[in-house]
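Single Protein Entry

Contents — chain, fold
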Amino acid sequence: MDFTNTNWLLNSDDVNIILEELIYKSNNVINSIAPIRNVVNNNNNQLPWYDEEIKIKARHRDNLYMMFKNYLNICEKQQYWNQVKVFRNYVVNTLKIKKRMYYENKIDSNKNNPKQCGKL
């Protein structure tokens, strides 16, 4: 899709509808030419409880959030926001659980070694 192949005829008497269609078509053309890229900060790799499952779910959450920000249609925007909230809560809760399990395992494995327990 490019500027020359896009149908730019806007058939409406309402200025708001024409503006919404124009913005929608322009965004589609711009996104096909220069799509938005997500840059992921890999600092979370140093956390032992941050595994591949959480990375995938967090990336999906971030993609949903980008789609939420880019949509102009109120109904679709609300649907994406609901999905963003679900995945956000899932990622946060999973991180809490895995972190707690990590420290519980560390403490259990070092019960007989108080110096190691103190370093946690």
Observations:
- Residues 40-119 form one domain.
- The chain has two domains: 1-35, 40-119.
- Residues 12 and 18 are 6 Å apart (CA to CA).
- The chain has four helices and no strands.
